Task: structure prediction
Amino acid sequence: MDKISENNIETFAIETLQALGWEYIHGLAIAPGAESAERETFEQIILTHRLRRTVARLNPDIPESAREQAIQKVQHIYSPDLLHNNETFHQNLIEKVRIPYQQDGYERSYEVALVDFTNPLNNEFLVVNQYTIVEKNQNKRPDILLFVNGVPLVVIELKNAPDENATVRKAYEQIQTYKATIPSLFTYNAVCVISDGMECKAGSLSAGFSRYMTWKSADGRKEASRFIPQLEILLKGMLNPTTLLDLTRNFIVFEKSKKQDAKTGLTQVVTEKKLAAYHQYYAVNNAIESSIKASGNNGSKKGGVVWHTQGSGKSLSMVFFSGKLITAPEMQNPTIVVITDRNDLDDQLFDT
Result:
C-alpha cells in the first residue's frame, strides 16, 4: 500500500483474503438486474442459490422438501430483538436446522447442516465488496462482507488512516448505524471487524467499542511484529477459512445475566454475545491438543497448565475448552471436574 486510501485498504484486504482461499466478486456483479445476478432484490441478504447448492451437497440423504424448509426457516427469522435473532440463527448454524416429520406415529426431525464444520474447506468462501442492502427505505453498503455458503458471517468496515476524522472508532460507529438501519444483515453475523488499514479490531454483535480486540498473532506461536499492519495480521490469523469456522463453532457464547434497574427495582435478563480473544483461542486449542495426546493409550495422563492473569477471561476460556473437548471424537464424552479455591470464583464459574 504505497499511498493509503480507503480504496487501497479495501483492495489490500480483498487480495489478502483471496490469497487465503476466498473467492472474490464485486457487489455490482451479483446485484439484481446484473448479467450474473445472485439476488432478486436489494432486500435479500443471503445468496440463496449458493446456500441451496451447498445444503444439497452436504445433506444428500435428506429429502429436498426438508432441505428447502431449512433454508426458508433461516431466511425468516424475525423478532424485534436483533440479538435474539442472531442467537436463533447461531443455534441453527451450530446445531443444524431441525425439520420435524412423522414416522410410524412418532415425531422425528431431519437435521439439516448449513456448514461442514468437520471439513472446513468443504464449504464455499466468498468475499464481496460494495454489497448494497435496502431495508425499510434505508440504503446502506458495507465495505466488505464475507459469505460462507451464501451466508454473510463477517462484516468488515474500513476507514482511511491518513484522515484524522476517519478513525477506527468511526468504523465502530458505522457498524452501529448498520445495526439500526439494516438489522437483517446482523441476523447472520458471527464477527464484526473495524480497521483504518493499520489499526484493526474484531468484536461481537453486542460488544461495546472497548470490547473490540486486536488479533495479535497470525499463527498462534508468536505475536506478530508491530511493524506489520494489524489488518493483515487479523485477516491471516482470524479470517482464514479454517480459523473462522472454528471460532464460529467453538468460541462464541451468548451469556445471560440478571440486571436490576436502579430506578424501578425491576430485574431483567440481559444477553451478551461474547467472542474469544486471540489468546483464548490459541490457548484453548493448544490445551485441547495436549489433553487428547495426554489421554491417549500411550499418553502421560498429564495435560498441562494454562497460566492466566487477572481479567484475562479464565472462566470463558474454560467454557470454550469444555465445549470443544466434549465434541472431540478422541475423548469419547469426557467428564469435566472444576475445582476452585474461593467462593466468589465458585459463583462466577457456576454462572458462566
Remarks:
- The chain is about 35% helix and 20% strand.
- The chain has a mean pLDDT of 92.
- The CA atoms of residues 120 and 242 lie 6 Å apart.
- The longest strand covers residues 252-260.
